[in-house]
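User:
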Amino acid sequence: MIAQLLNRPFLLEVAGLVQDEFDRELKGRSGGRRQALDGPLHDVEDGELRDLSESLAGARVSEPVGEGDSDPEVTPKDDDAYIPRDPLLSLLQTTIEAHVEENDEVEIDDSPLLVGRRDEGEIPAVTDRRIADIPLVAPEGRRRAWGDMEIAENRLFSDPGWLTSGFAMAVRAFRGRAKWVEKAATIEVGERARIILVGDWGSGLRRAKRVADQIRRVLDEDKAVERHVIHLGDVYYSGSKREYNRNFFNLWPVDEGQDIGSFSLCGNHDMYYGGHAYYGTCLADPLFSRQAGSSHFALQSPGWTLIALDTGYEDGGLEGHQATWAKELIDRAPSDQRIGLLSHHQLFSAHEDGAKVLGDKIEPVLATERVDAWFWGHEHRCIQYGESQHEGHRVGFASCLGHGGVPEHMVMKETDPRPDPPWEYEYLRPFREGEPWETFGFAVLDIDGPKMSVRYIDENGTEHHNVKEV
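Assistant: Predicted structure:
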């Protein structure tokens, strides 16, 4: 990830430049000058060009419009770790980063950026990687900003042709989604198994690599037990093939040839490039062959059935007949077998909204009253919930594990009042003392017959929470 692209004012300003270029092209065509015949937008029809401009304008409007920290919707995090809510802006991040890193004329500076840090050897909370000749400054008040001329005069943006054409092709991929695979995979698991869950990990940051290193360490603790690693979804910025190779496979903690299962759920960012790389790169790789090309699957042991749902193809919902498939699995399971669910999106949260469509569609599954555990990501935090009721139906143990690789500001401090139940635990250790960043981590599920324990381990290798029996 590149620092400038994680800055909200910078990205929105570049979005404005792209929109202006689309509008300029349209104006030229309306005056009888078909600029696109010899230009980068030559194969983009007028209607598509107009739609791109309007969509990008809508994406910009959908973001908070306040200035500085005075606007409660624009947080200091948006200076350093801006993850847009709109997929088109994530596609813009992908387009710029790919061009920057593949263009020999653009210099990338990796030297330590000593902002809020005391030692050049310290790992950055987010990233030091940046475009060298676009000033990256942190004025008093922590609001990083670039003036119009600082971006417009930079040689990287002096010819926006590469950006407009690349962005147009990315939007085509977003709208032309990969084909949905209805058939689900079922994988038999032994009575004793270790299953590692990590969510929202595919950022490629140095701290995400630390998480992968700790996962490797835990995998090596007991090589006699059956082992699996499951990613709960999201490769950033947009789940492109390049991002899968760079931010995911390059750091994945399981090597080819190891007798360790690898699985990956589909998140909303995995679908921003249409899901083409999720299906065509990730699931097509031999490491993930146990999924058999399907984004939803089940791990079945004598004591547990873990049902992994795809809530990314339909953002925050359930594409296809997943609810029916999951309910049939539960109905066929022995009465003494326990049931767990895995997903990218959350059913509920102590800090954010739950996925309403998911909640509605999963109702037949919850109505079985057999959901003993549910693990999810999406919200970039580590939270553990106790038993709860959703629309009158029991949900047993639940946990958010979206703290695998995306920098997030802490929403609570140790001294703050605790949320109401079913909230029971939240990891509140900052990445560094005096800084607001959450600490990354993952969870280790140890299954032995119908028993399940859950250990929570952070990027430093510290076990900070342990639920001995779910």
